[in-house]
């Protein structure tokens, strides 16, 4: 018991003496730390697209970004939308690459042929 207490007190003395030495060097040596992100530009707000008053007679593209293990969900979603809203033309398209990859041909097709789009991102 006495040995454990002695070791504990010796450890505290070592820590206190180290803190005193570290405190002295901290005052003597100062460094400047910069933010590695740099100066961030202001956030540009982009408003949401205007919504159509109705989807009746409209073409809506459903864009699948092929998030892993969501194919069954996407197929079921399209099936249900077609059953519940038969007056709307639902078009399922798979996007080239993943979510972060651009697909200019698909975006041009949507702008030309669709009145609305739903982009599925996985989460």
Fold blueprint:
Layout: H1 2-28, E1 59-64, H2 71-84, E2 89-94, H3 104-113, E3 116-120
Parallel strand pairs: 1-2, 1-3
Please give a structural write-up.
By secondary structure, the chain is α/β, with parallel strands linked by helices. The chain contains three helices and three strands. The chain has a domain at 59-120. Helix content is 41%, strand content 14%. Strands 2-1-3 form a three-stranded parallel sheet, sandwiched between helices.
Number of beta-strand segments: 3
Tell me the major beta sheet: 3 strands, parallel
Secondary structure tally, helices: 3
Q: What separation lies between the terminal Cα atoms? A: 57 Å
Strand order of the largest sheet: 2-1-3
Unreliable residue stretches: none
Give the overall silhouette.
Answer: elongated
Q: Helical content, roughly?
A: 40-55%
Please tag this protein with its features.
123 residues, alpha/beta, 3 helices, 3 strands
Short recap of the structure:
The chain has 123 residues and is of the alpha/beta class. The chain has helices at residues 2-28, 71-84, 104-113; strands spanning 59-64, 89-94, 116-120.
């Amino acid at each position: 018991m006495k040995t454990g207490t002695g070791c504990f007190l010796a450890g505290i003395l070592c820590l206190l003496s180290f803190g005193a030495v570290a405190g002295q060097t901290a005052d003597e040596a100062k460094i400047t730390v910069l933010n590695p992100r740099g100066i961030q530009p202001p956030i540009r707000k982009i408003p949401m697209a205007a919504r159509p008053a109705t989807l009746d007679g409209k073409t809506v593209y459903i864009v699948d970004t092929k998030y892993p293990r969501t194919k069954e969900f996407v197929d079921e979603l399209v099936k249900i939308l077609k059953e519940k809203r038969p007056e709307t033309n639902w078009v399922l398209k798979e996007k080239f690459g993943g979510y972060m990859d651009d697909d200019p041909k698909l975006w041009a097709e949507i702008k030309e042929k669709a009145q609305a789009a739903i982009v599925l991102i996985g989460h």
